[in-house]
Specification:
It contains 18 helices and 13 strands. The chain has 440 residues and is an alpha/beta fold. The chain folds into three domains: 200 residues, NAD(P)-binding Rossmann-like Domain (Rossmann fold, 3-Layer(aba) Sandwich), CATH 3.40.50; 83 residues, Rossmann fold; 139 residues, NAD(P)-binding Rossmann-like Domain (Rossmann fold, 3-Layer(aba) Sandwich), CATH 3.40.50. An eight-stranded mixed beta sheet has the order 3-2-1-4-5-6-7-8, with helices on both faces. Strands 10-9-11-12-13 form a five-stranded parallel beta sheet, sandwiched between helices. Helix 13 links the parallel strand 9 and strand 10. The longest helix has 31 residues. The model has no long low-confidence stretch (mean pLDDT 93). Bound molecules: nicotinamide-adenine-dinucleotide (NAD). The site of nicotinamide-adenine-dinucleotide has 25 residues, from helix 1 and helix 5.
Length: 440
Amino acid sequence: MNISVFGLGYVGCVSAACFAEMGHKVIGVDVKSSKVKMINKGISPIVEKDIDVLIKRQVDEGNLSATQNTTKAIRDSDVIFICVGTPSNSNGSIDFSYVDRVCGQIGRALKYKKSYTSVVLRSTVLPGIPEKIAIARLEENSGKKAGKDFGFALNPEFLRESTSVYDFYHPPKTVIGELDEKTADILEKMYRPIDDKIFRIGIGEASMIKYSDNAFHAIKVAFANEIGRICKEYNIDSRKVMQVFTSDVKLNLSPYYLKPGFAFGGSCLPKDLRAITHEAKQKDIAVPLLDAAMESNMEHIHHALDMVQKNGRKRIGVLGLSFKGGTDDLRESPIVNMVEQLIGKGYKIRIYDKNVSMARLIGSNKDYIKRYIPHIAKLMSDSVQDVLDHSDVVIVGNQAREHEAILGDLKNGHKIIDLTGLDNANNGNLKEVDYEGICW
Ligand SMILES: NC(=O)c1ccc[n+]([C@@H]2O[C@H](COP(=O)([O-])OP(=O)(O)OC[C@H]3O[C@@H](n4cnc5c(N)ncnc54)[C@H](O)[C@@H]3O)[C@@H](O)[C@H]2O)c1
């Protein structure tokens, strides 16, 4: 392919050199003449392992060059990668002016170009920016339509500085935020030799993946350091703790606990989180991340309550009362918390939970209900039909198997508020009824 790369910083230099090494013809473009001159002399403008050798070789072989002539670079390219900076403003917002400006330049050159050209945004951009800034400027300045007259894709970059050449050839994943099939096909073909994990998804999802990645990586570092500070206080070897912790790929380093859904609860997570944060406070160890987990959980319950309140209707049916399907344990169930708040606000509630059915309960759980939540026990019914007949709004509180079947039978007129992701289990069929998911 004939490629141009706009922006010769870390991402642009590595992409340009590595694409050239893969056999493409690459023109780098930068507003800084010094960077352009360096590339043309075969010298790397950035300090990165292995990049000097790559740039020198590809410039010598005539596969890589650089220019400040935007129009010429665009005229000679099938694919244009945008790798300009998106720096932070002092208030934390992002300065997208470089993306804005470069898309204006590219748009003006596309106006006169006859052959189909794909513009690929590789810079890190927030959801909405590809459409509101990149595509908007390209269309305004070219007088052409994205997806029809020229191609567009968002292709976030996951390389790490200091190992970026290695990361380019061994990416953790390849993400293509797709607008037109043709551009996504071209990108898939370009990346196939270095990655078989290629995700073609929507542009919004692609931009959010990059932010989810980096937010999670930041949280991982902060988490390990907070655990480390607590360990040090007890003279415990934190590195040993985290070594064993990370060896658990079933619950710790795995998709488990990473599905958007309802708040956590039950007899362990809240109790143990409170215990360790309380202990840290006693020892004057600041653990703001661990503290924030509880606060975030409460916010999530408020968010679910808001969804019910915004709906306005007062007759509520709740399917599932325990903190997760398949158990009758009600201790610290977030749905119990939610039901109590709804009762306080005057909602009329009926509840169905096969596992918590009073008729079946024995032992400690029966005692728990009688002692702590007798007012909720009164609202429980053993008949699903009774609960559905009573309700305008049906809240799915946990992911018990039987709820899938019940929801399949719901009629028009019911509003479903799903805290669990049952629409996935129903292959999206629930979208036909008045359905709202808590995070989707
Ligand atoms: N650095 C990383 O490790 C990394 C990793 C993944 C993603 N990213 C993202 O990639 C993007 C680029 O990051 P970077 O670190 O390479 O940025 P950088 O600041 O090092 O380089 C950006 C380059 O773009 C040039 N430029 C600006 N406007 C231009 C224009 N109109 N035409 C041509 N060139 C122009 C600048 O002169 C500069 O050389 C950012 O969105 C960043 O968040 C960076």
